[in-house]
């Protein structure tokens, strides 16, 4: 406007035609200033829109699934989330578990305890993504129904742990079923790499096995609906068969002397040695022949325990126990007394 006033002052004294040219020039200059201001305003608006467009974007969840599949209660229930953040910010999530349409209290992590569920429950979870700046829209996955949970063999072992051929062994299995179904167990017994017995029997007679053979058992649980995972025990290696004492202790004492020949056999033909673990004073045994001898003194009246050991060359030991009851000799009465 100042320029217009100045133009008007300068236009005084000019011809009407000249004054019209001056006014037109001033008017055009004013319009140019207005248009320039508008253009600057539009540029500013464009910059503002650009900043909004290039700012942080909220993260988006595309899908969520529950594991295990199918949904059973043999372990924790875990939700796996598929999410995207175009700004590539690291994401975290907030969870709300829903069972049979009702939120579960104090369960806000990615896992849900199976102890809170039972067969037939409908499980869902609502999830909110967070990129460190803003929380995205929640995502609620479709409900999944808890199915039958198969029984589980938690531990399986053979008793006794040390086994030698000819010993009867038994399978000990720790089995659980979260649905509290009645569980039936089938067993498969292995000798080395061959099945020697299969069925419901949890015991096995190892007659016919040899030293060095391996023995293992496999258990398969069944709850009437489905079988659980088969579990096989740690193999037991057959040990040495101990020798066997086959003789019977002598019962007679002649001239205050006791003698007994111990006889023992070994199924694997190992050499056998003998010893006395418990014996009265003065009793001896031949280490290699097993001959027991004892010269009894008059003061050794009473009951004496004897324990004979027979050991084979592999270190296996067997024993035999017996008692000798020494009573005083009553002198015979003279005839006619």
Written account of the structure:
With 337 residues, this protein is mostly beta strands. It folds into four domains: 2-53, no CATH class; 60-145, Immunoglobulin-like (Sandwich), CATH 2.60.40; 152-237, Immunoglobulin-like; 244-326, Immunoglobulin-like (Sandwich). 14% of the residues lie in helices and 39% in strands. It is built from two helices and 24 strands. The protein has helices at residues 2-11, 16-53; strands at 60-67, 77-84, 92-99, 102-103, 111-112, 122-130, 139-140, 144-145, 152-159, 168-176, 184-191, 194-199, 203-205, 214-222, 231-232, 236-237, 244-245, 257-261, 264-265, 272-278, 284-285, 291-295, 302-312, 317-326. Strands 3, 4, 6, 7 and 8 form a five-stranded antiparallel beta sheet that branches. Strands 11, 12, 14, 15 and 16 form a five-stranded antiparallel beta sheet that branches. A three-stranded antiparallel beta sheet has the order 1-2-5, with no helix packed on it. Helix 1 runs antiparallel to helix 2 (16-53). The longest helix is centred in the first third of the chain and has 38 residues, at 16-53. The chain is rod-shaped, with a radius of gyration of 50 Å. The N and C termini lie far apart (173 Å). The relative contact order is 0.08.
